[in-house]
Amino acid sequence: QKEVEQNSGPLSVPEGAIASLNCTYSDRGSQSFFWYRQYSGKSPELIMSIYSNGDKEDGRFTAQLNKASQYVSLLIRDSQPSDSATYLCAVNTGRRALTFGSGTRLQVQP
Amino acid sequence: EAGVTQSPTHLIKTRGQQATLRCSPISGHTSVYWYQQALGLGLQFLLWYDEGEERNRGNFPPRFSGRQFPNYSSELNVNALELEDSALYLCASSLDGQYGYTFGSGTRLTVV
Prior knowledge:
The structure holds 2 protein chains of 2 kinds. Chain A is mainly β. In chain A, about 0% of the residues lie in helices and about 55% in strands. In chain A, strands 2, 4, 5, 9, 10 and 11 form a 6-stranded mixed sheet that branches. Chain B contains no helices and 11 strands. Chain B has strands at about 5, 10-15, 20-25, 30-35, 45-50, 55, 65-70, 75-80, 85-95, 100-105, 105-110. In chain B, the strands form 2 sheets. In chain B, strands 2, 4, 5, 6, 9, 10 and 11 form a 7-stranded mixed sheet that branches. In chain B, strands 1-3-8-7 form a 4-stranded antiparallel sheet, with no helix packed on it. The radius of gyration of chain B is 13 Å and the shape is globular. At the A-B interface, strand 5, strand 9 and strand 10 of A face strand 5, strand 9 and strand 10 of B.
């Protein structure tokens, strides 16, 4: 079992819709969770971090964490074509090194 | 504040040669991480340096090596280059992994 799992996609949503990206992790001791956005040919960019159960909102982005279910999600409201990218889930297992999922490719159709 | 800087941006080498990639972390960050991302694939963890020591390495052959200098900058060396080493090599730094990483813009290595 992979430590951090994501559906590879592509996830296709129409412009203006909500995009929902999901991630599960295997280490129950994981302490902190991150979402990175990576445009094709570019380096990953940190867009959200979450440390406790519940929701965390930042603009059009909402991260959701459920430690009991070992589940992290990212919601993107009012999706724009510029949101089309690969979204990487990353988990810190307490060893100061992050484990990354393989990413979900999001396509926002104009 | 300067971000993570990597050099060179692009590197073209011939099979069998050696490549050296460099990374300067954000000021104050002591940990440097190296990742390989082949075309269309996910991030593959290569190496983690902290306080000058190698803390962990991924599932790569020994011809991938590196070091971290006293100023926390880092070098990744790839010996005996093979065609499949062609990839984007990303460096990231952090003060503590619980706060996430900041990535550099990467070095694109092409082996011909």
